Structures are given as C-alpha cells and as structure tokens.
C-alpha cells in the first residue's frame, strides 16, 4: 500500500482527530518540499468532498507553484498576496467554496494550500484542513531546517577536510624545514670543525645515504665518502671536463651527468671543483638536491679558505725562494726554511716548470706541490718570472738516481695536460750555491722547449754541452756554431738537405759508414756523397783530431738549439 493509500485509509471520517496525528510522522520523515506537499495533497480527499486546487510556496518575495511547474494564475496570485499570510476565501471557477490555508510555522508563512469543495465543509472538516495546513507548514519548516543543517554540516566537513589538508601541508613544511635545519647544522658543524673536504663529503653522505665524490676542477679526486670507491678513479678528457663544467654553469641547480648528480663548487665566479652524488638508481629527491646545494656552498668556502692559505704560504716560500735564487747567507736560509717546514740541509737542486695552454701559474704551482707530495719529494715551490720554481731534495728512496720524470708525470696527470716542460739544475750541497743550479735549470728548460718540446731535461744530460751553455747568454754559442758549420746550415736551408744531421750522426756512430747509413736510412753511396759535400762546403777535414771535437759539439749545439732531428 502506498503512502497516499495509507493516508486515505485513515478513519478521519469517523474521528479525524484520532487519525490526523499519523500524517505528521510521514511528513516529518521527508526532507523534500515536493514529497511533503504531495502527502498533504493526497490526504485532503480523506477529510471530505474537497480537493486541492494548488499548492504555493513562498520564494523570496513571491509565490511559486510547488513541483508541477504550473504557473500561478494572476488573479489567484494577487488574492493570496492580499491575504498577507492569513487564511481566507479565494475565487475558484465552478466551485462554490474555496479557501486558502497558510502553511505556517514558527519561522513564518512558507506558502499556501488552496482547497475547494462543491459546498462549504462542516466545521470539523474545516478544522482538520486548517490543522493539516499547520502540520504541512511545520514539516516544510523542518525540512528547510534540516537542509540548512545538512548544508552547514557539509560546509563544516569541507572546511575540516581543507583544514586537515592545510595541517598536512603545514606538517610537511615543518618536517621539511626541520630536515633542512638538521642538514644545515650538520654541514656547518663539520665546516666549523675544519674537517676539510673529506669531512664535508662524509657529512653529505650521512644525510643523503648516497656515495659522495669531491673533485678539483680538473677532475682529480680530492675526497670520497661512502661505499664503492672506484679503483682506479675514472678520468675524463680535458675536452669532456670543460664541456661538463660549462653545462653545469648554465643551469641554476645541480646537473644530472649520467649516474651522478653534480654541483659546481665556486668562490665567486671561479670554479674550484665539483661535488657529486653517485646516484645510479636515480633515487635523489628534493632532500638530496637541497643537501647537495648546501654542501657545495660550504665546500666552496672550505676550498677557498684552503686555497688562500696555500697562496699565503706560497708567497712566504716565494720570498724565501727568491732570496735563495739571488743569493743569501746559509744560516738565514736554513732558519727561514725551517720556519716554513722545509729542511735545506743536504743536497738540493732547482727545477723550473712552465706549462703551456689554459693553465695559470697558480694551477701549475698547486699541481707541482701536490705532485711533489705524491712523489715523496720535500719541495719548496714558488712563482718567479713567469715560471714555477722548485727547490727540492731528492728523496732517499731514489737511491741517488734522479727520477724527476715521475714528478713530471704526476703534474701532467693532475693538470690533465702534457704540454709542459721542466728543467732540472745541478745538485748543490750549500744553499748559497743554489743560484747556479737555478741558472742551469733555466738552461735545461730553454733547451728542452727549443729542441724537444714538452718533457723534462736535466742539466746533467747535456754532457759536454754543459760547458758550451755555461752562461745565460747563448750568443757566443750561436757564433761558435756559425763559425764551424755555418755553410752547412745555409746549404740545408736553401736546398732542403740534411747535411748537419748527417754530420752529427756520422760522429755519433764513431765515423762508421755502415752504422751511419743504417741510422739515416740511406745507401752508403748517398752517405759518401753527402760527406764529400760537407768537406767541400765547410772546408774542414772531418777526420782531423783538432777539428773533429769542435764540429761534433757545433752540430749537437745546433740540433739542441733549433730542434732538428
């Protein structure tokens, strides 16, 4: 049985006052005005020979029909408006009796229900109709209150959800700030403790959980923290390294380079090195990126400080080296060197270093210092006249033999370049004799640069030429060479021949025809012809004892000075 059937079955004809209380229970269970009005409309016929003409609701300042969409007749609308919320008669065509009952509630009038009948109902029926209208108004008011409360509850839930989201974001922000504070505090503590690059790397590893690499700007390893230290440490070509630093300098934050996340370590606009997180699985998130950026700043301060200290020490050593190279008393030199941590007692020699290309003297000096430490060489390094000058003692482990080639290779590895030359002077027992070793080192460097190109030459290796180059001025040497083989030099230049080289090899081979021809890759007859031309042009007897030494020295000096082969 439907709700309307339930209402019609109420025994209101026998006793309307007993059946009427059941209707509000049905109405007040509803939250929709349409359903409430349909219940009221369906119950009216049970109260007598009445019918509902229309139901109207107050919407703002006007009346609207309930849910059927039927327009309000203008005359009826005007009549209801005139009633101003009171009950009263209205005109309905072809009906003798029509009455408008207001749908009142404690909050006011919510609308009207218009009922008509062929004749005026009895008093009891009119009472029940009025009571029905009153209950309908209460049900409408209750529905409106319920909807309002529900809307408020929905709004409150929405605000609570928004507040919860804000709280979550706030909690996340607080946790983020706490993590950042902890990271910054960890790095600052390490920096304040002067733990150096290794300490900063270890601190970064502890907060990120990733292996950390610290490199200088050339790609050499300075420090490593965490597992899986590569051995040997991977090396990049100079071109690749330069391109990597250029790319990293163009981005605002860390740069992804294959399995590494790198950040430049700077002091102002100068790049001091690279700090890298090894992240093959690409697990680094914003926390790791933040820590890497902050660690790069702290490391930049540390490396700049260390460089400034090295520069200060280099200037102090430079003053000492300058005095040693120009001449100073032994006692003063010994005491000043001891104050700088260098023992000048015992044999020492001077090395001069020049590296071509995109390397300033500061880079070269630092590389020489580091290379000397790697080779266990006690060295005092300074910069002078465009060169890096080293006053060094041969390590006892070398057993009296020079192994300066190892130092050259170490510096070349650190600078990632083999474009340098090193000249090594003779060994001196007393510091007051070091100016002589310095002069010899400069001669050796000049000869290496002019004859061989990049590499290392010791003054000891010059042999008899050490006597030829005994002073700094090579003018006399050039004149000596011109006096003895000038005609051969001019002929070689004009004819593009190799008479000077042939003569030098002839003497180096002990004047043996077969050995000379083999070394020069020529036939004996060709060699015989060349030697004949040499005798004719120079006017010298190649086998004469008094001229043979001069000719051999002249050819060797020419080849050393001008790099012929």
Describe the structure.
- The chain has 565 residues and is of the alpha+beta class.
- It has 4 domains: 3-154, GAF domain (Beta-Lactamase); 196-307, Beta-Lactamase; 327-462, Alpha-Beta Plaits (2-Layer Sandwich); 475-562, Arc Repressor Mutant, subunit A (Orthogonal Bundle), CATH 1.10.10.2840.
- It is 55% helix and 17% strand.
- It has 19 helices and 15 strands.
- It has helices at residues 3-8, 12-19, 22-28, 33-43, 74-83, 123-192, 196-208, 238-250, 286-326, 330-339, 361-374, 404-415, 434-452, 465-468, 475-495, 499-508, 513-520, 524-538, 545-562; strands at residues 51-59, 62-65, 88-89, 97-105, 108-117, 212-216, 221-225, 255-257, 260-267, 270-278, 349-355, 378-384, 387-393, 420-424, 455-458.
- The strands form 3 sheets. Strands 2-1-5-4-3 form a 5-stranded antiparallel sheet. It has a 5-stranded antiparallel sheet with strand order 7-6-10-9-8, with helices on both faces.
- β14 (420-424), α13 (434-452) and β15 (455-458) form a beta-alpha-beta unit.
- The N and C termini lie far apart (123 Å).
- The model is unreliable at 6-19 (pLDDT under 50).
The tally of strands reads: 15
List unreliable stretches of 5+ residues.
Answer: 6-19
- The average pLDDT value, as a whole number, equals 82
Number of domains: 4
Number of contiguous helices: 19
State the helical fraction: 40-55%
